[in-house]
Design brief:
GO molecular function: glyoxylate reductase (NADPH) activity; hydroxypyruvate reductase (NADH) activity; hydroxypyruvate reductase (NADPH) activity; NAD binding
CATH topology of the largest domain: Rossmann fold
GO cellular component, one term: plasma membrane
InterPro entries: D-isomer_2-hydroxyacid_DH (IPR050223), D-isomer_2_OHA_DH_cat_dom (IPR006139), D-isomer_DH_CS (IPR029753), D-isomer_DH_NAD-bd (IPR006140), Glyo/OHPyrv_Rdtase_B (IPR023756), NAD(P)-bd_dom_sf (IPR036291)
CATH class of the largest domain: Alpha Beta
Subcellular location: Cytoplasm
Number of strands: 10
Strand order of the largest sheet: 6-5-4-7-8-9-10
CATH architecture of the largest domain: 3-Layer(aba) Sandwich
Oligomer: single chain
Shape: globular
Helix content: 25-40%
Order of helices and strands: HHEHEHEHHEHEHEHEHEHEEH
Number of domains: 2
Structural class: alpha/beta
Function: Catalyzes the NADPH-dependent reduction of glyoxylate and hydroxypyruvate into glycolate and glycerate, respectively.
Length: 297
């Protein structure tokens, strides 16, 4: 899928009018575009998230939507763990200080970070990625695991001794709060001033789900007021992040450009999976990786 600007669609109107399949990732696929693609039968995104697709509009037109929910699990969990470690140990900040020539003697407390091992990790969203993160934290760092989802996750409790709790309890007891939720109408701005105020002042907040799940202004205020200690962020309300964002001037914020699945191996695997998904969908095979399989009934 090329850049789907109105100009691109208009210039290639004949191609879009005949297309039966659509493959892409970040482009918005809405009702207006679908009107120009009357023969479209299936779409496939090179991602696990699909909030840029109008699922209702696709379903109403009996167009299948495929995604890649499994191939990126371990890589995104690695990114989450990297954000946990880099924020707690201030890796980015102190590395920049070394490069700036500030390491002129033995370091003192103003260079110190905080431990990760044996600290409590709260996971909001115990899906595949949450489970992979819990595995790393539990077995690799001896971290007690709290989690919050709609239903109890028996496997997480059995494998990692994870404890289910309501969101308020998780916020109050966790040393690290990792948010791994998709963007929906229900999750939009799920985290705001009220939630940050309930966290420990020593707590570190991690978001690698979707940016708009967090009220970014509330996060900035919480960091500025010292309500939370630090943040590691892979996603933002507006991407790319504005160069004027206060987050970029905060030493206690690690901000990376939505790199969750960004390794050569995983991005290739996602692309290959998305192509296979599109072929399967066009052949009526919707047993896996389909968001709206009932369309094929």
């Amino acid at each position: 899928m090329a850049n789907l600007s109105p100009q691109t669609v208009e210039q290639n109107a004949a191609i879009f009018a005949e297309a039966e399949g659509l493959l892409g990732s970040n482009e918005n696929v809405d009702a207006a575009l679908l009107e120009k693609m009357p023969k479209l039968r299936a779409t496939s995104t090179i991602s696990v998230g699909y909030d840029n697709f109008d699922v209702d509009a696709l379903t109403a037109r009996k167009i299948l939507l495929m995604h890649t929910p499994t191939v990126l699990t371990e890589t995104v969990a690695d990114t989450l763990m990297a954000l946990v470690l880099s924020t707690a140990r201030r890796v980015v900040e102190v590395a920049e200080r070394v490069k700036a020539g500030e390491w002129t003697a033995s370091i003192g407390p103003d260079w110190y970070g905080t431990d990760v091992h044996h600290k409590t990790l709260g996971i909001v969203g115990m899906g595949r990625i949450g489970m992979a993160l819990a595995q790393r934290a539990h077995f690799g760092f001896n971290m007690p695991i709290l989690y919050n989802v709609r239903r109890h996750h028996k496997e997480a409790e059995e494998r990692f001794n994870a404890r289910y709790c309501d969101l308020d309890t998780l916020l109050q007891e966790s040393d690290f709060v990792c948010l791994i939720l998709p963007l929906t109408d229900e999750t939009h701005h799920l985290f705001g001033a009220e939630q940050f105020a309930k966290m420990k002042s020593s707590a570190i907040f991690i978001n690698a789900g979707r940016g708009p799940v967090v009220d970014e202004n509330a996060l900035i205020a919480a960091l500025q007021k010292g309500e939370i200690h630090a943040a590691g962020l892979d996603v933002f309300e507006q991407e790319p992040l504005s160069v004027d964002s206060p987050l970029l001037s905060m030493a206690n914020v690690v901000a990376v450009p939505h790199i969750g699945s960004a390794t050569h191996e995983t991005r290739y695997g996602m692309a290959a999976c998305a192509v296979d998904n599109l072929i399967d969908a066009l052949q009526g095979k919707v047993e896996k990786n389909c968001v709206n399989p009932h369309v094929a009934d």
